[in-house]
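Example record used in the benchmark description.
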Amino acid sequence: MKQTKHIIFLLAFVAISISGCKKNKATDPTAEQPVNPGAGDEENITRIQLQFIDSANNTISKTFTLRDTDGQGKNPPVADTIKLEVNKTYFVSQSIYDDTKTPLSVVSDEIRKEANFHRFHYSIKGSLIAQTIITDYDTRSPAQPLGLEFKIKSGNAGGNSIFNINLRHFSNGIEKTANPADGEQDILVDFPVRVNN
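Model output (structure tokens):
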């Protein structure tokens, strides 16, 4: 009898443990909604750096930084003004960091590893930027753009504008697309832009 009670107690404990590990169907993957390998965890982002290299002279390099010291807190990020010249093409590389971790976490390295589940979109208000072309890709077949590396061509008029960075994350069976509204939002930030005549 004591042995029977002991077995019943163990079965009850296991049942409670399993029910406590069940995931919320509204927010978590289930057997019907499998996790994509490499989908990764949500990252805290405190700094984004854009390095611009003049395509006509690769010794000319400019770096512009956006800082969000409280990460996902309520304080707005503070961004440098991107300063470009008219009728120039720039090669741009983007680095993303979480400065709250020790050692420093390079979030852009994780995004690159999980390229099949991420896509950057870039837009600018007005016509100061004539063209933005993504130059790095994921490992799908056919390959799709990632966007940590890209080219920008400035227009032939000077002025001020806003450069928007939008990173979309595709996981839990969501197919990666070219639509900037699809997937989940990982990053949505603005850099002010000044194009000089």
